[in-house]
Specification:
The protein is α/β, with parallel strands linked by helices. 38% of the residues lie in helices and 17% in strands. It has 10 helices and 9 strands. Helix 9 links the parallel strand 7 and strand 8. Helix 5 packs parallel to helix 10 and helix 8 runs parallel beside helix 9. It is elongated, with a radius of gyration of 19 Å. The model has no long low-confidence stretch (mean pLDDT 94). The structure holds nicotinamide-adenine-dinucleotide and zinc ion (ZN). Nicotinamide-adenine-dinucleotide binds next to loops. Zinc ion binds next to loops.
Length: 253
């Protein structure tokens, strides 16, 4: 063991060294060290603001206006956030060819910002750094939407088709993206090491992927501050901080 390396990081490093095809599965916990609050910890985003589900978003322009109000608040954290040591360690594993994909529940775009090619990031819950038209799929950047919204609470509509424009995230009650789900399933099936980082593993169907990987013969690692329901089936469980644990294991500062 290298000096200063914890036994958890050493055990993780040994598993990584023995693996040919590693998949990471990240949740809100990997981004808390970047200053983005997670979902369920005290003081987290949703203890302050309940998410608006898809049916309500579609039901009236007033609900959409409320959704954009909440988006404006959450965006303050997003805009200031930069990738942290955990993101950088994953980027190193991808660039060395050891990690075939990062399946993420996050919507903050920080894996791509850390240098991971977009085609290696599988976003299960979409991306909150831009918006799309729900009818024609046209992409819209957030900055002009937020400027108009902050001016007079203008709710965006599609210039091309008049459709409803929504942050490109998957809301509760909205269909999961089929292509991303299929890719996540294929990667979970094909990997020999599956590493969960900062997910409470309570949001399904996303939380089904660690169990799938394990059933198909992969080793399962869970790094999370608190216990999860799947700790019992993992080969290594670390109840600690992601940045330090993974950074030490991969040798990234
Ligand atoms: P979650 O909030 O349910 O769970 C996060 C887990 O990470 C918690 O168990 C917490 O103890 C742990 N954690 C927090 N910081 C940690 C750290 N530094 N080291 C180790 N563990 C840490 O998050 P989830 O499972 O991803 O589900 C929440 C949903 O909310 C996701 O589907 C996601 O779409 C959305 N969300 C996204 C973001 C983001 O994009 N950054 C932020 C909040 C919520
Ligand atoms: Zn449109």
């Amino acid at each position: 063991m290298k000096p200063g390396t914890s036994s958890a990081s050493a055990a993780l490093a040994a598993l990584i060294a023995r693996s040919q095809r590693i998949v990471a599965f990240t949740g809100a916990g990997i981004s808390t060290e970047s200053g983005i609050p997670d979902f369920r910890s005290p003081g987290g985003i949703w203890s302050r603001m309940q998410p608006i589900d898809f049916r309500d978003f579609m039901s009236s322009i007033e609900m959409r206006r409320e959704a954009w109000r909440r988006k404006a608040v959450i965006d303050q954290d997003f805009q200031q956030a930069a990738p942290n040591r955990g993101h950088r360690a994953l980027a190193a594993l991808v660039s060395h060819g050891a990690m075939s994909a990062i399946i993420t529940q996050n919507i903050d775009g920080l894996h791509q910002a850390s240098g991971v090619p977009a085609d290696k990031v599988i976003e299960l819950h979409g991306n909150g750094t831009y918006a799309t038209c729900l009818d024609c799929g046209q992409r819209y950047e957030l900055a002009p939407i937020m400027v108009a919204f902050e001016r007079d609470e203008t709710v965006p509509e599609c210039d091309a088709c008049g459709g409803i424009v929504k942050s490109a995230t998957v809301s509760f009650g909205q269909a999961m993206p089929q292509a991303a789900m299929a890719r996540a399933q294929a990667e979970s099936t094909a990997c020999d090491l599956f590493i969960v980082l900062g997910s409470s593993l309570v949001v399904y169907p996303a939380a089904g992927f660690p169990a799938l990987a394990k059933r198909r013969g992969a080793k399962l690692v869970i790094i999370n501050r608190e216990e999860t329901d799947q700790d019992g089936s993992a080969d290594l469980v670390v109840h600690g901080e992601i940045g330090a644990t993974l950074g030490e294991a991969v040798g990234v500062a």
